[in-house]
Amino acid sequence: MIQKQIWIISLVIVTSATGLGDIDQEDSLEDKTKGSKYWTCYCNDASCSGETCVGRVCYVTESYASESEGISRAKGCFNNSIKEHCSSLMSNLKEHCCEWDFCNKDKVLNVTINPSLVTLLLVTVLPSVIFIVILFLVIAWIYKAKLHRRNRLLAMPSDFDDADMLKASVVGDSTLGEFLDEYCTTGSGSGLPFLVQRTVARQITLVECVGKGRYGEVWRGTWQGENVAVKIFSSRDEQSWFRETEIYNTVLLRHENILGFIASDMTSRNSSTQLWLITHYHDDGSLYDYLQRTSVDSEGCLKLALSIICGLVHLHVEIFGTQGKAAIAHRDLKSRNILVKANKQCCIADLGLAVMHSQNGDYLDIGNNPRVGTKRYMAPEVLDETIRTDSFESYKQTDLWAYGLVLWEICRRTVVNGMVEDYRPPFFDVVPHDPSFEDMRKVVCIDQQRPNISNTWSSDNILSAMTKIMRECWFSSPSARLTALRIKKTLNKLRSSLDQIKQEC
């Protein structure tokens, strides 16, 4: 009996020692319902004796320490409950716990990687630095190009070869007319060679100031016994000087109804820099001055009007070919910027705000002048800021609006049936002497007012035709206005009719 009891106790002890798997199997079945027993887990930790371990919880952890070490993953088991593990974790450390056999074997957590300071700088700061460098290079390139153009316009004598020096040495042997004919050929642009321009400028003697404006002063000067006009720009209006110089030197602009350009120079006098633009001199001055002291007959009115539109057509048209010219819109056409020649024709001056356009590549050169046009002559689309600034046609249409106002000024000073009106600027009766932008916008855009047309003009054939042209230049819709070429053709027909009547008489 005693031996039988000893055998049973030994069997229990052996079973307890060797039968753990059977207990685990039973525990596994029980754990699926109670969650409190042991599971076989995949293990790759250093503490593992093999590829598996047994515990109450299987786990997977992923952590990111550094760029060099990368992501480390650990899998194993715990003998504690889930609540004591897998609770709150950092963003660069994730842990997953589960409770069934090998539940951690294929689990991937995709831990969040916090970038290092270097990486953060590369991602955020480097693009900004690259952008700033590119912007600096673009600005530097634009400045260098501008400086190159200016140096080309103001090239020192030492920059030219001996042939140019020889030409400059014989300048005094010619009169101004012969001199200009020699150098200003149709194949060499509208201006003189750059060295000759500087040579001429330094031989000019200023005689008297004949005009002042916001741009500076106009002087009558003499060169080799000939009168020339010297427009001296103030330093704050340098862009206007540069723009006029650039246009005169780069396009074929010579035309009888465009002010003749002679030279441009930057000089230093009385410890200050002076910007000179030298042109032909006209004793009668501007059309504004001329109309205040002189009235005209209907034939004289037609002559003035036709010469202005001929100059405007030459500006607006593009001449194609290797010796062509770009199309140009004036943008500041008014009676003060039109000069009266000795033959009582007009020529257009002041190209400081001009816009150039070439159909080759649809290139539009607006320039870099912050100055705006004269408010009294601004078209409705400029005043209400609806003008298409990317369209060259828009700028030409503003010139036609202003031409209609200049035409009105001429017609007021035209004698009809022995009567003539005093000179007045456009809109003199509805805006102040120096109108503001808002003054003009209210009158032109909101109230839709236009200059008054005298009833007496209808009794004269020429003034009646002028009236029709004016009104077609003053449409609110820019596209409805006449073109310069159409006006030129109309006035030429009117002149032909007048010439025929004179011949018959």
From TrEMBL:
GO biological process terms held by the UniProt record: angiogenesis; BMP signaling pathway; cell differentiation; cellular response to growth factor stimulus; dorsal/ventral pattern formation; heart development; transforming growth factor beta receptor signaling pathway
Cofactor entry: Mn(2+); Mg(2+)
Pfam families: PK_Tyr_Ser-Thr (PF07714), TGF_beta_GS (PF08515)
Annotated keywords: ATP-binding, Glycoprotein, Kinase, Magnesium, Manganese, Membrane, Metal-binding, Nucleotide-binding, Receptor, Serine/threonine-protein kinase, Signal, Transferase, Transmembrane, Transmembrane helix
Gene Ontology molecular-function annotations: ATP binding; metal ion binding; SMAD binding; transforming growth factor beta receptor activity, type I
InterPro entries in UniProt: GS_dom (IPR003605), Kinase-like_dom_sf (IPR011009), Prot_kinase_dom (IPR000719), Protein_kinase_ATP_BS (IPR017441), Ser-Thr/Tyr_kinase_cat_dom (IPR001245), Ser/Thr_kinase_AS (IPR008271), Snake_toxin-like_sf (IPR045860), TGFB_receptor (IPR000333)
Transmembrane segments: 117-143
Gene3D superfamilies per record: CD59 (2.10.60.10), Phosphorylase Kinase, domain 1 (3.30.200.20), Transferase(Phosphotransferase) domain 1 (1.10.510.10)
SMART domains (alphabetical): GS (SM00467), S_TKc (SM00220)
GS domain residues: 174-203
Membrane topology: Single-pass type I membrane protein
Record-listed E.C. numbers: 2.7.11.30
GO cellular component annotations of the record: BMP receptor complex; plasma membrane
Location of the protein in the cell: Membrane
Record-stated family: Belongs to the protein kinase superfamily. TKL Ser/Thr protein kinase family. TGFB receptor subfamily.
Protein name in UniProt: receptor protein serine/threonine kinase
Taxonomic lineage of the native organism: Eukaryota, Metazoa, Chordata, Craniata, Vertebrata
